Amino acid sequence: MIAVTDGGDGRALYIRIGDDIRSKIASGEIASGARVGSESSLAAEWNTTRETVRKALEVLRVEGWIVRQHGRGSFARRRPAVDVQWATDRYQRSASGPTSPFARDTAKVKATPDWQWVTRRERADPDVAARLGIDVGEHVMRTEYVFRANGEPTQTSVSWEPFALVGGTPIEEPEGGDGPVGVVARFDSIGVLIDAVEEIVTARPATDSERAALSLASGAWVQVVERTHLAGDRRVETADIVRPAEQAARGYRIPIPLPAEKDRPAATTSDDRGTHGSEPEAAAGDTSPQPDATSG
Fold first, then answer.
1. What DSSP character marks residue 284?
2. Which of 1, 3, 21 shows the shortest CA–CA distance to 13?
């Protein structure tokens, strides 16, 4: 039978135990990778049964706070460092170095990139058709990816490209050929010059297939980037990029054009604004009435 003593605060005991361990992991009191305590030691500490402790630990496992290793115990999950992808940098053409944005990302942290893919031709569903600006049912080339850094899965994506654009060209299949990799470099090679990228960033719980591909715990969330490449007004590729939310951050450096020299406002000084924006003080000895600020 599971103990349900609430300690006077209305919470079941297994919830209180879980909250305590979670708080200690979040604060660093229980270090990343450290054992959180055996079931028997925690049961003694909380004056309860191992069954109650087991229930608390299972909640923490599902939430992704701990990992449980058979025969060894429960350990605070190692929280990966947050990796910021600067979206305004990663799509730029480069005269040297990798043409794949993912390869450039991993090079910045001195990791070794690799990826697996599966490509097939299929008909566009309404969502993909709308994103590419084509008719529903038109053929597209769909490619599913799993990206790894130093052998660890870090990102998945599904990409779609209009078959009417890439079919019969050297980039019909985006991987495995002799040409360049990366969307911008690939389309450059067939004379389609991409000049813009759109991104919509959201977050949601991971699907079963995403948890399996990215080795995520139950209850984990993912960051989803809906990305579309454009050449002028034509949408040439769209993709859903998925990364573990706990380690994913998307950064944007957005240029703000300066006005022409003749249109720039004159710089103001503190003398122009008065003292902290207050009304000018009357000159010494000036006893004349000051204007009524409320008068017309």
1. T
2. 3
Which pLDDT belongs to residue 80? 57
Report the SS3 class of residue 165. helix
Q: What is the pLDDT of residue 101?
A: 85
At 289 the pLDDT is: 52
What string of H, E and C letters represents the secondary structure of 40-84? HHHHHHHCCCHHHHHHHHHHHHHHCCEEEECCCEEEECCCCCCEE
- Tell me how far CA of residue 241 lies from CA of 84, 194, 238, in angstroms: 14, 19, 10
Rounded Cα distance between 157 and 101, Å, is 13
d(CA 47, CA 186): 64
- Residue 193 is predicted with a pLDDT of 96
Looking at residue 296, what is its pLDDT?
43
Q: Which domains does the chain have, with CATH numbers?
A: 13-76 (1.10.10.10), 83-251 (3.40.1410.10)
* pLDDT averages per 10-residue partition of the chain, 296 residues: 52 93 89 90 94 93 82 79 68 78 83 92 98 98 94 93 96 86 93 95 94 85 95 97 87 86 76 54 50 45
- In terms of residues, how long is the chain? 296
d(Cα 139, Cα 164) in Å, to the nearest integer?
7
Greatest Cα pair distance in the chain: 91
Is residue 110 a contact partner of residue 128, using CB atoms and an 8 Å limit?
A: no
Separation CA 64–CA 75 (nearest Å):
11
pLDDT at position 108: 80
CA distances from 55 to 18, 69, 78, 254 (A): 9, 16, 21, 48
- List strand residue ranges (DSSP E) for the chain, in order: 66-69, 73-76, 83-86, 113-123, 139-149, 152-162, 196-205, 221-231, 234-244, 248-251
